[in-house]
């Protein structure tokens, strides 16, 4: 089942309405970071070099290491020390998020706080995945970060997409994706998955982004277990983030929240606990 979905994305990229959308290339530093992490033993010297090669990115790394959340006795003053304090995976996630955010800027008030919300979703996904034990936290973080990345790409590349966002948020008779499809013959799940593939993210991430509103996949054994876990995880993470931000739960939650919890074998009490547990983590996002 995964291969037909990949073929669908390739067809959409070549000949569908997505063909005329400019898909930004993967940032060179992010490509180098992916290569460094692809080694059996990640190249720490190379990762340090990448982090230090951009002043703003290095400063962001050190700000996170010096945040009140970590409450260090002595402030971090070097990139290497920041990476030690944060841990390699957290540091790489932060660097990836910084580079993605800069490559895909959002200037429209329609997507105000888009990257804050996306970062919180990514952090929530990583947190939950660590509780599940059998799902890689790096995959989960990437899926959370890229889940809605099709929106800013469509906003920059499709005439009238800003009006589509306003309409989709206002309509109650059909879903956000259905409004996108009606107006543009594609949606942010397809475009986001194409961005993930173009940027050489793991195929599980691209497929989860493609399916993140299609919860029928949870019962489809033809789709890989990690992809189905990620799809369920994304909705739970969205719920956690929107609860924190004081926004109504996503429409998908009322329809499919219970199914996603059951698929992940977690209960409502755990979700409520995570809302409290992640509060300081979510709050720290808006400080940077």
TrEMBL record:
Domain of life: Bacteria
Gene3D superfamilies noted in UniProt: Hypothetical protein af1432
Domain (HDOD): residue spans on this chain: 23-215
InterPro entries, per the entry: HDOD, RNase_Y/CdgJ
Protein name in UniProt: Predicted signal transduction protein
Organism: Serpentinimonas raichei
Lineage: Bacteria, Pseudomonadati, Pseudomonadota, Betaproteobacteria, Burkholderiales
